[in-house]
Records
---
Amino acid sequence: MEIRRLRYFLAVAEELHFGRAAARLDIAQPPLSRQVALLESEIGAELFDRSRSQIRLTQAGSVLREHAQRLLEQLDEAIEQTRSIGSGRAGRLRVGFSDCASFGPLPELTHAYRTRFPDVDLVLTPYGATTLARALIRGEIDLAVSRQSLADEAFRVEHLCLEPLVAAMPCRFAGEGRQLASLSLLSDWPLIVYLNPGAGQENDPILALCRSEGFDPVQCIGAPDMRAALGLVAMGAGVTLVPSSAGAACLPQVVLRPYAGRNPQVALSVGVRRDNCAPQVRQFLELCRREARSEPARPAMALLA
Amino acid sequence: MEIRRLRYFLAVAEELHFGRAAARLDIAQPPLSRQVALLESEIGAELFDRSRSQIRLTQAGSVLREHAQRLLEQLDEAIEQTRSIGSGRAGRLRVGFSDCASFGPLPELTHAYRTRFPDVDLVLTPYGATTLARALIRGEIDLAVSRQSLADEAFRVEHLCLEPLVAAMPCRFAGEGRQLASLSLLSDWPLIVYLNPGAGQENDPILALCRSEGFDPVQCIGAPDMRAALGLVAMGAGVTLVPSSAGAACLPQVVLRPYAGRNPQVALSVGVRRDNCAPQVRQFLELCRREARSEPARPAMALLA
DNA sequence: GCAATTGATACTCCAAGAGTATCAATCAGG
DNA sequence: CCTGATTGATACTCTTGGAGTATCAATTGC
């Protein structure tokens, strides 16, 4: 059974005239007659009553016509839907993000993507820092957005943006100035670290930064994520460093202060499995790159305005 | 788009292995790869992720697989249904009958047909004597069963059975004997005629029979159908002649009496348009012929037993 | 690093579909 | 009742496209 025969049959069933049907199909009449006859012998049923000059559908032909019409419509629809998904206009995109990625450009990016691709089902799932990479490896998500490094052979990682770090400290610790003259001014308070909760605190990049600035904090407190770290700061437990965009989620008891000196420009990065070449992924990443170009990282001072 | 490509694609989607899929389809692997590639370029979407040694379905492929599976099932079902109707195992058969055809072999015939072809929707519609032939001409029914003659160039007519006529008279008119010595014994009572209500009474075959037996009834009363005629007999309005099988519908005030002499053996006939070669019609008529052979008309005396 | 597996490619061959010419049957009109 | 027109079927040829064989390239597992 070939679709062509159904199409030919349907044309004849609608025109009830081999000549007109052939013209509509843009073929000659004899092959049309032949194909319909082949269809009839294939099914084993007369589809047309040719006893008069005006042909008519038999019962069997009438039923087949309805089926054929429905089938061809469904086929077109299936192809169109498949094409949409293949082009990235439709389908599904699963983005996992670690908690501290909620701040920064991700909300705007997802909004832009949804606006550009309203028929894609964008599934956003928060993950803990340790489970995000695993979800990406297992294929539970297509994209992983995180501030942690997603270094893995199987991943391709792009930076969404680079943000300077700023000091987060309780209001009552904070001095007058808008900017800390040096990061070492924080050395008297406990340092709250949170970036790699899975790994040991000793490897934390914030702690490493402090050491490179020439001091060791009096104490090091681990927190599972940035939000928890800011909570600890609000409670006066210590100080920490956060990306400047974290200001959006800052608690009233906390002030953010840029500081002079070396600033490692913490990155928000997006990871994707190298073997994932889904158009939805590709287009999301392209959108990321465009946004990154058009909207450079806000200067650290902006959040104090 | 050709069905073959969908079948090939589905095989690969299920096996996730071109070699095994090709073996299942009983073709070589290269043409299978080619056809799948052609399907992909036709749709304009990658259907398989071939980046690893183990191929996988893409989103688009996964969606197309579901559609293809459903479509192919529906196609098979459509063909099977069409085939059933074309063979006469399923479909619809519209039988019209005039009232007086309810008596005689029609009930048993329809029952036998329904038993033999349970999937055919047998539509039985009663018609008045005048509307039956019109319905057949218009194609509103496939078969017309009637005791009237359905003579028309466009019809093919077969006799279902021949039945002797018997006299129907009110109990109080009836004499002692089980059989009338002669039809002319009825000459003193009004004759009720009903066979051709559309045509004039003068052409009624019952009246003609009486005349050929050598008498004119004292009066001639028209009735629209046999049931009405028997009602008139029950009310003592006169006498009539009915097919012997009418005993089944006889009222208690009426007795049926065979009579000696010429009996025109009224026929129950079935008419069909010559251009109607539907298998349901053909098989119904074949059933009629078989029944007619296996069950000859009951002798008139039987109904008195 | 090498052998094995697996899908893609190049090329040939054949079958099936499409075109041309023509026939047969039906129907309308004189 | 005959004739011409219409319409679908048939015979034959040609071309397109699908299938087979041989082979290559890439990936994977030992």
---
Amino acid sequence: MARPRSFDPDDVLEIARQVFWQKGFQATSLDEITAASGVAKPSLYAAFGDKNALFLKVLDRYHDGILGWAERTLAQPVPACEAIRQWLTGFIPYCSGEKGQRGCLSINSATDGSLDQAELRKSIERYNRRLEELLRARLRADRAEFRKGFDPDVTAHTIMVVHAGLLALAHQRPDSKRVKAVIDQVMSLLA
Amino acid sequence: MARPRSFDPDDVLEIARQVFWQKGFQATSLDEITAASGVAKPSLYAAFGDKNALFLKVLDRYHDGILGWAERTLAQPVPACEAIRQWLTGFIPYCSGEKGQRGCLSINSATDGSLDQAELRKSIERYNRRLEELLRARLRADRAEFRKGFDPDVTAHTIMVVHAGLLALAHQRPDSKRVKAVIDQVMSLLA
DNA sequence: TTCATTATGTACTAGTAAGTACAGAACGCA
DNA sequence: TGCGTTCTGTACTTACTAGTACATAATGAA
């Protein structure tokens, strides 16, 4: 019926993610995405809308990836304590300079004062809420494991804070041993 | 001997700090700083150098302010545990949307992939190192307070991580009660 | 083969921001 | 008062970037 698209939108979102993650939203120009993806601007605009909309699509895709992985990790048939430790441990490469110093695209975006606040904050809020829900649900389900007075809701939030802190400090490329030591110490809150 | 400066550089750095903190480095134009301060661009360039240099001066000044306050708070003649709790508690207004949603200028800058990396990272690294040293020194000095096997070095780093996490999540304007609950739970690591 | 439709690539517009040239103003000193 | 020096404000240049107009290419259907 008409000329078909010459690129896979998902591939382009993947490339755009890398560029945005590396340089941040503001500092990334569409020309750079064009150069990296080989897709010209009019095609990008036709497929994704303007720069803000493209970034939101990239970010949502990023969120979905992490949430999917969190669901799988936290659903494992091991004690909650162990599942959560594995989940946190999985971030170590991103917290320690092993996979660059980019930290977390979502946190980097949240701390960027320049982004279109309304939509972006909604996306990040939704992501954080869902992540915290996963942690909370797991802690509640296994609450019998823990000592009396254990509060799964506060603990879920504390883990979110530690997670955010580790990824915010990732930009300093800390040694992975230190990251691991922090995770161990925080996990002792659950023992 | 010559025409005197018509503005106080420190006032301008203070104003520039507010603008940079509000909008981020990239999204802040020198025209905005000119508008906010009443100082024209050539004077800014003469006094501070280019935009990067201006930002570094603003950031160093910000760091010094927080370090000074941390020194005072942590030097108080109370148990280390209590001094650190007070230090963390002092950030609550900046962690909870009470004083806007700007979080911490240093963390916001660290997560911004677009900044001149060499100089900026050195400044932030130095700041974090000095802050962590203050915490570590205080914990070491009072280590007798804590249980056996207590590791002041790891604990100092964990507190840095929590601090960074709270300020990274500040952009979601969490309820100050939740922030306080997290601080309480983390402080229980020291009990 | 021809047409309607949708994608593509080139080349453009418009706007903005960093940085500066230059003329003139404000000072201390002689 | 006149001079050298340093600061100030206007107006500019240069460069980059978001977004788009338009001609053309590639498809399926008739």
